[in-house]
Model the fold of this input.
Amino acid sequence: MTTDEVQAYLYENIPLSRAMGIEVTTAKRQKVVLSIPLEPNINHRETAFGGSMSAAATLACWILLHLRLLEVPGDIRLVIHKNKVVYRSPIKGRFTAVCHLRDEAAWSHFLSMLDRWDKAKIILKSHLEYEGIQAGEFSGSFVALRA
Amino acid sequence: MTTDEVQAYLYENIPLSRAMGIEVTTAKRQKVVLSIPLEPNINHRETAFGGSMSAAATLACWILLHLRLLEVPGDIRLVIHKNKVVYRSPIKGRFTAVCHLRDEAAWSHFLSMLDRWDKAKIILKSHLEYEGIQAGEFSGSFVALRA
Done:
């Protein structure tokens, strides 16, 4: 999938991403970057609403896993099981949500568990950047289930 | 503030709440209940998007704290510091986000810390209900700062 295809898929399947004005700027199997405008995600203090920060961080991880799971045969359902978010500093303008997956050993383990049990869990991290500052950190536990 | 006033405040100050179609059904100092339609919050599996579940749970807690902090003199800034969410079961229709604050001792402690240090932290929980099932749990650490 190209970046444009991921963008279209996102807007079609998760309408809140459109309401949030999320732009997919990088969509690769190693790295996903989303760019998020402040305006639709603003709060009463004119900074980014925590719920928007968390949702953007969730989507960055979800897209990366979705892209990788396209490589795997069969109908696989991907669900989030739990997550933690730390909000470190206020965001006062356009920000990004960045998910890297560098640990290929964790991915291989995930795939072998999925192959063996038709179910596997992986923990993925993402972070929120605003003007070069790491404004928030997200860690999510995602579960894949083969139909 | 009446329920309608809270609703209007929410839509005006946190526009994502309007995009999510959140309806404030109870807004009391002991309990806040929000009702959330599935459609604007749907995901690729036609269940509620985790980011929407988390944002709704955050708002239920935030509104309850906001209402209580209106009773406290001075300009107080309320920010979320961190949160955890557990997603227990898929949500396939309109759902609610419910925040209760029953621990009045914790609230009194929070107020005395705020009075003493102009800064205080409180942990608040909320949950997501769908057809009588507890579909998710949220726990957030909120910080109040007096200007």
